Structure formats: C-alpha cells, structure tokens
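Note to self: the last two entries modelled the partners one at a time, which told us nothing about the interface. This time every component goes in together.
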Amino acid sequence: MGVNGYGTIGKRVADAVDAQPDMEVIGVAKTQPNFEAHTAVKRGYPMYAAIPERMPLFSEAGIDVEGAVDEMVADADIVVDCTPSGIGAENKALYESHDTPAIFQGGEDADVGEVSFNARANYDDARGVDYVRTVSCNTTGLSRIIAPLREEYGVEKVRATLVRRGGDPGQNSRGPINDILPNPISIPSHHGPDVNTIFPDLAIDTLGLKVPATLMHVHSLNVTLEDDVTAAHVRQLLESESRVYVIPEGLGIDGAGKLKDFALDAGRPRGDLWENCVWGESIAVEGRDLYLFQAIHQESDVIPENVDAIRAMTESVDQAESMVTTDDYLGVGITGDPSGFSNEDEAEAVTETEIADD
Amino acid sequence: MGVNGYGTIGKRVADAVDAQPDMEVIGVAKTQPNFEAHTAVKRGYPMYAAIPERMPLFSEAGIDVEGAVDEMVADADIVVDCTPSGIGAENKALYESHDTPAIFQGGEDADVGEVSFNARANYDDARGVDYVRTVSCNTTGLSRIIAPLREEYGVEKVRATLVRRGGDPGQNSRGPINDILPNPISIPSHHGPDVNTIFPDLAIDTLGLKVPATLMHVHSLNVTLEDDVTAAHVRQLLESESRVYVIPEGLGIDGAGKLKDFALDAGRPRGDLWENCVWGESIAVEGRDLYLFQAIHQESDVIPENVDAIRAMTESVDQAESMVTTDDYLGVGITGDPSGFSNEDEAEAVTETEIADD
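The predicted structure of the combined assembly is written out below.
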C-alpha cells in the first residue's frame, strides 16, 4: 500500500496500515521535506517525491528519496490518496495509468470514486471496486450514528447543526477568531447531500457553522425516529457500537479539550480519537425526536475507515472481520471505564519505541 | 424611572429610557465607582449607592452620590433591576417595601415576576402588573421569530441549537478558549422552557453550546410549520417585523464581526444591534421545515423590551404605540438598504454631544 500525501490524514493512514497484520506500507509520497517527512523516515517508510523536480530538496534536507511518486504508484497494490481537497481528483489519471486502485478522501467530490464509503454503513458496496472515496470526517461521524438507528428503529428525518472547528491545530492561517460564522450561510449545507452518498434515500437537512476552535467538531443532532424509544435504549444501542464512545457522566469531560487530554493521558498516538464521542448525558428523547451532542476528531475519525476500505476493495475479508481487525490492531474502542482504552498497552509500547528511535 | 445596576444592561436601559419622550431617568444605582459610574455622571444621571457603606468610595473617586439605593426606589414610579442574575430576586423585597413596581431581567428565575415579557408576543399580559421579568436575550430572539410564524402559519414544533458566545467583550475571565462546549450537556437546555413562559403551549426543544467568541450569539433554528409555505413568503413576513433585520445578500456580512462593524459604521450607540439579525440567504424551507440562522446581540436586544415593559405596566399606551415610540426614539429598525439605519442622524447627534462633553 502506498500513501500519496503525507500530511494530517496521510501520516495517520500510514501508521494505521503499518499496524495491521495483513498490510504493508511500501512508500509514502510528499511534496516537500518538512517535519512530517522526517517523521516518515524515522518510522521507516520509503519516501517518494510527489513532485519529481523537488527530489534535490529532499536530499538537501538529508532525506533519502526512493524515486518519484509514479514509481510508488506502479509498485503499489493500492494507493490511499491523502492529498489536499481537489488534488486527489487531479491524481486519478496517474492511478488509472498504472491500473492501481485508489482510495480518495472526503474533500473530493463524490464522483471521484465509484462508491462513497463508510465501513459501518456500506462496506459491501466497495467490494472489488477500484476507486473508492471514504467520506469526510463529519459525514463519517453522522453515518456511524445513523446506521444503527436506521437498522434498529427506522429514521424519518435527520436534522443536524455542525459546529465546526475553524481549522486544525497546525492550520494557523485559518479563522475565525472571535466569531461564529454560519458556513455556508445558505441552508441546507452540503453535508446532508454528502450523507446521502452513503444513505441515498435518507431525509436529512444539515446546517454548518465555523467557530474559533481547533480541536474537534461538535454536532448538535436531531433524529426523528420511526419507533417510540427511550433514551436508555438508544444509549445501550450506541454503546454497543465499536466506533462510538458514549462519554460516561462523572468523568468531568465537558468539551473537546478534556477529550483530547483523556486520549493523550491514555497514550493514544497523537491523542487521536477515532471514535465518535457522544455525551451520554446529552442523549434525550422527546416524543419520537432523539437529540444528542457528539464531538468528532476531524484529524482521525476517518482513519479506520480507510483501512477497512482497503480490505473491501481487495475482497480479502468481510465487513465484520475487517472492522474487528482494524480496531484490534489500531486500538479503536473505549469502554465506559475511564481507564478503558483498549490500546493502552500497545500505545505505550509505540511511545517507548519512538523514544528509543529518537 | 430608576435603574438599579448600571452595567452592561443597565447603562443601555438608562440611555434608552432617557431617549423616550414620555419617560425620565431619576437615578441609577451602582455598587462601585468604576468607569461606568463616570459615564453615568457624564450623561447626567443622578447616582445612588447600591451598597450604602460604600458611599465614601464614590466621593473618593470624585463622584457625587445623591443617596442610597432605597431612596431612589422610594422616589421612582418604577425600577428596572439590571443587577447580575440572582441579585434581582434578592432586591425584590426592597421594591415591595416601597410599593415600587419593578422590571427584572431574564437571568432571574421566571417566578421573580408575575409575568415574563416580550413586547411582540405578550405585551398585554403585563398591563397593570407590578412585577415583570423581561426574558433573556436568547428567549427574546426566539420569541420575536416565533410570534409572527405562529400567527401567520401555525407552529408544530421548534428545534433550536443556540451557539452562544462564551462571554461579553468585557468579561475577560470567561471561556472557553479553543473549545466547543455543549452547555448544558443535558438536552433539552433550559432555553426551551424559558420560551414557554412566553408561549405556554409551544412545543420547543433547545440545545445549547458555548464557543470562544464574545460578540453575539448565533441560533441555528428549525421550525416545523403547520402550513406549507415558501422561503420567499417567510422572508417577506420577517422583513415586515421592526425588530428583525433580514441581512440582504451582497453586503458581505458573513458573521457577527461584520454585523458589529456595520452597526458601528452607522453610528449606533455602542455598536448595538437591538434587532434579531437573520441571514436572508439562510432562510430555507424543506417540506414544512423552516430553517434559518440568526445572530443575537446579547448586550442589547432586550433593551427595547425593557422600555415597552414600562409602558405596559403603567398602562400608558397600547402595544403598537409603545413599540413604534420605542423604536422611533431609540432608532430601532434597519432597512434592506446598507445605509438604511433609521437612527443614523440621531446617533451622530449623540456622538457629537458626547465628544463635546468630554
């Protein structure tokens, strides 16, 4: 497997694939020899130049380059494209020219792939498909909640307000500062139609905003269900989902900052939260209207989905086996216990290795 | 009229009352001689000490004090209590002991008054009543939208996500910084029940959050209507409301920051936006579901409501005459025209007076 674009998503995909028993990272491609390139070298990933003319820059920076990106594409069984939005679509011709199947990220338009993908909702749709798009962080977060609700109760309509972080922690030229921006101002936002790439017949209206925060998105979610249910029953249902963490009352986790502290304390790589983080206390039912708040870690929630997309496309194993394998080897899953990170020991082991490497 | 508590709300109420042709500010009471006390002196409002023992502090600061707050309460026909949440309820005994009617703010529990008040929705409920509570900034903002929608189309259910500013610009010890907090985490928030003090039979569920911004709240609003309507019809309806400003497309107003710039450019006192600011572009209808975004200036939207409450309680004029008088003399109302502030000339006059005073 090759990773084209080794930034926020790419570096996480490479590590997640590297952790799987049935996959190998044959290389990563970057446009420039920045700090992330040095990280890739330390982790032992062969480096390819995404822009061949820039190879000397890598050498000057002390980074050995294996070759140009098209060599990596030619050698790979599959490429995960993690380049910025819009570049993925431009790269598609390269993958096609080498008959190399590819996974694109959710920033691309839906038609870049034959299928838009969420492991929980439509794994089988990607079986044997050559070009797949894993949906965005927000769409992934919505799909993981909607899928079990639809199966268990039926969904009449979804209304979601997405209170989005203005930029990632490293994106220091983005805003807003001290403002609350309807974004887009027009309603509905594009997120609803994106969810419809996963659930074509779902009635969903979404509203987007951007605020001065960097850590996670927060969704204010309303789902009108077809059945009469209790909040307790919904909570139990969501607690049974491996990629949903229902935050227990009493832990003092009141926002994204404490969620990240919690993940970092547990030794999670980069403090990642691959799971939807749903506040248990927020789950409420009024009539057939279900409400909840969930936080979505925009840098990492799509990572397990990319790993599963590889298995679906290569038809190696079925949905259940792929998801369990991904979760086990990556360390996805948090129990209600505050020390319940399933990956705690492994994460510590990774940290020790890294320190030894340093 | 006396104002007890001359802070964010009190200083605005005093100026708004002072601008009315049928009202007079007989005094304002403060706990300490801070910068706002000096402003009150400059504006010519007699100063009373809210805590009598502190009178010497005012003298030391060069501020003449007329007396203690109970003298002001005894002399006033009506007191507007603008003290911090919870203090108003403690002050009620003082007002009762002098048989002085009083208006409380929305931070108090509903039972502090016999009636909770919004001029547009239930003016007549406060006629001749001695203790009235004007509802909070958020409840005021919701009531102004719900009232015309109920009258025109009927409302089946309201679902609102309130993305609230963490604190006012001067409240520099408040947060969050770089976080998006569900607040309260439990759903529904207290805002829905507060709206029910205005519309007792309304079905409404509200969800609250706090974000790192100080300028205005932003509401993501969904109203399921009883009639089938078009977005254009709703827009026309809201444009006809004097205390709702439908932001036209094309002005480049994309958030609270530009709204405040717009108000300051127009010479609005303190850059206040007394009106709900609804993005015209956001008004959308899907089936019978209406959606819109509105920004609410938490420091000022309740000001005209306090003025109208005085007239309702004293039974001087009817709802329509009171609201028109308040709006005319305060300068409430923005037309679609970018230079359409109705108070532009008056605001400039105020500014000039202040500069001459300084």
